[in-house]
Amino acid sequence: MAETQEPKGTKKSGMSRRNFLKNSGLVAGGIVGGGLFGGLIGSQMKKPKEEKKAAKETTNDAEARTFFSRSEDFETLSAAVERLYPEDKIGPGAIGLGVPYFIDRQLASDWGSNAKEYMKGPFPQNQEAAYYENLNTDQNKQGPNSVTQVAAPSPRYQTRMNRGEIFREGIKVLQESAQSNHKKKFFELEGEQMDEILTKMQEGKVRMNGIHSTVFFSLLLKTTIEGAYSDPVYGGNRDMAGWKMVEYPGPRMGYLGQIEDDEFAVMKQESLRDYQEMWG
Amino acid sequence: MAKKLEKVDVVVVGSGWAGGIVSAEAAKAGHKVVTLERGKPVDRQDYVGVKDELRFSDRYEMMQNLAPETITSRNTLDEEALPVRTRSEMMAGTDLGGGSVHWAGATYRWRPIDFEIRSKTIERYGEKKIPEGMIIRDWGITYDEMEPYYDKWEKTAGISGEPDPLGDKRSSDYPNPPIKESPAVRLFKDTTKKMGYHPYQVASANLSQSYKNPDGETIAQCMFCSFCTEYGCDFGAKSDPLVTVIPTAVKTGNCEIRTHSLVRRVLHENGKATGVMYVDLRTGLEYIQPADVVVLGAFSFTNNRLLMLSKIGEQYDPKTRKGVIGRNFNGQFGITFLGARGFFEDKKFNLFMGAGALGGTMSDFAGDNFDHTDLDFINGGGIELRQYGHGPIARNSVPKGTKNWGPDFKEKSIHYTNRSLVAWYTPAVMSWWHNYTSLDPTYTDEFGDPLLRITNKYTDHDKAMAKFGIEKCTEIMEKMGADIVDPDEIPEEFDHVYDGGHYAGGVSMGEDPETSAINNYLQLWDMENLFVVGGSAFPQFGGHHPTATIGALSYRASEGVIKYLKEPGLLTQPKKEGAKA
């Protein structure tokens, strides 16, 4: 299973798990370590040895959850996107690129709440609507923008839920599937087991409330690709490692002197920040 | 209660090529013009330092906010239409300059047959060639009559190009030489030439050199930065209304541009337009702008809807096939622009470089340049290979049969990201009795006004054309040396994704008021001081990209507006259509 990101807050403030429990008054009556309360709190906090492992991952203050309140949801998301875009010999996978944080922030943005989409009712729940939701347009069936679209299906949107709500619902379904099929948490499953659940979602074979599971899967895949390759300002593409893998240089003034060249131009990656600094 | 403003000569709705050109020409002729734009004011400075793929290509920064208003869509008359809710399904530009700012810049003149498709098809193949239900017609204007307007627009926009070897008569060359050629474009041109075709460089509104247009506006040289289609140009090197007709209109001192101004109604009395009612979207206050002439130069959807909301002209009813407003809806989207994608093992292209209109093209299968006797369609289109230059979010194509996620997807998408090219067909689109626009009975905008409803389905004719184009593109891609060639698949039915911006018709041109809404000056038959300008005027779609034709029609309409202000009346007399559509 892929590594997941650890919460940083407790360590940074110098507050250990033990101190937190003590200060919060939760160490009372011997319930920590057993019983209902212990189970609740304990499962949300990392063991000290895991904190150590996390330290080398990142020291970026921008990497904190602002949409997903529950760390378990975030770990489920992280495990799922790493299956879609895994670490391999070419370079980092979705987690290493910061994709889960990218998605978290996108869902907290106006895009996540569908601020610029038409969200007025009625939202029909008839065969017709279900048909549209199920409709895939793959890259070979798209129109004028086929080359500017993520290589993922884009079923027509006909749900009253916004994207943030779809993600919450989808992640809940991933967790429920893991629990009912394997009696485990999603992120504790073997890779193949996770793939099996993801494939069923992609094929629309998992029941979801309000939408077809294909819609959620498409959204998950689309945002994963976006997180791997969008400018690092959005929280993904960490250290421009996504761009390095595809040899994309980032925004530049232009290529007037190179557009006719036969050789492939290998260039150092520059970010939007570098580009804006150049303009002053 | 709406506040009534001082009367002007001309009020123009919209500030893209259509509204912008009419505003500039009327203002240059000394008329007082007010131009109303629903979006915000922008200029080149708004596009400096913002080359950001996610924001512009995936979050549609320059597209209309759909929360207050969208369209609804269905395939057939007996279905209930549903709203097109997200901006990934509905591409329509907004802000000053409209959709003409985010455009790519590919420039084509349409062909003589595009303007006279009905009579020329009958002349060469006989009446039987036109299938039942296809309501194509001649425009009431010929290519030769359009030529001076094309020429004028090309000079305003500083188009950089070389003549189409299979093109039609031109009064002068493009004002600028063609833009540079990339290795991918060269490969396409060399290959198709060897195959006996007639390739040439796509004429481009991304300029090959710095240029001063006849109105005195300077357009800069294109840098091939790739942030072009779906973006504004940070160098002022893509010809758009912001660097041409809008400053031209403003500097006359005769044109006032009001942004954040959403027009909700055309006002009229006794068969004459008296002005428009609009809302300032910041304050919510309503205004009435009276004018002698009203010009609708907004996006085709808006032109259609404003007439319907204002109860002007007779709404088309597909059951009786009577009425003209909403009739002849057509456009290049969905089933058009299909072709083949090639994957190259031993070639690597700089696909992160490019320009909106950088490309090779050929007209061997356009218009009536090839014999249709044994083909089950009429007209045709260009075959193009374009190098827009794309960011990495967009470039993740993998050969068919590859799973679209997981280790194999990652490896192959990275491998092919700089090794995959597309050739596509840009076919003409015919109009049919069952494809039309009307007001939706259920869904409304933020003010409670009905949304525009599109009823659109594919026909066997569309599919035959798509199949033909895919076969030709597949052959070209194979000859180009691609190791894997994936032909596009023909979709069964229109999936309600309005991408590419080429939606047209509904307020279409013609000679007969029984079947057309406007005459060849884009003047409404039913209301002679109302001109409806833009892609909404196309009775059917030509076989190439539409912008030059919209530019040319806008110059034609400007002439009409100025003529009308001098001497009011119908500028063209109606004729009965020879054969009833």
Automatic annotation (TrEMBL), chain A:
Its EC number is 1.-.-.-. InterPro entries: Gluconate_2DH_su3, TAT_signal, TAT_signal_bac_arc. Pfam families: Gluconate_2-dh3. It is an enzyme of class 1 (oxidoreductase). The chain crosses the membrane at residues 20-43. Keywords: Membrane, Oxidoreductase, Transmembrane, Transmembrane helix. One of its GO terms (molecular function) is oxidoreductase activity. This is Gluconate 2-dehydrogenase subunit 3 family protein. It comes from Sporosarcina aquimarina.
UniProtKB/TrEMBL annotation, chain B:
Keywords: FAD, Flavoprotein, Oxidoreductase. Residues 160-182 are annotated as: Disordered. Residues 144-330 form the Glucose-methanol-choline oxidoreductase N-terminal domain. Residues 441-553 form the Glucose-methanol-choline oxidoreductase C-terminal domain. InterPro entries: FAD/NAD-bd_sf, GMC_OxRdtase_N, GMC_OxRtase_C. The keyword Hydrolase does not apply. Gene3D superfamilies: FAD/NAD(P)-binding domain. Pfam families: GMC_oxred_C (PF05199), GMC_oxred_N (PF00732). Belongs to the GMC oxidoreductase family. PANTHER family: LONG-CHAIN-ALCOHOL OXIDASE. This is GMC family oxidoreductase. It comes from Sporosarcina aquimarina.
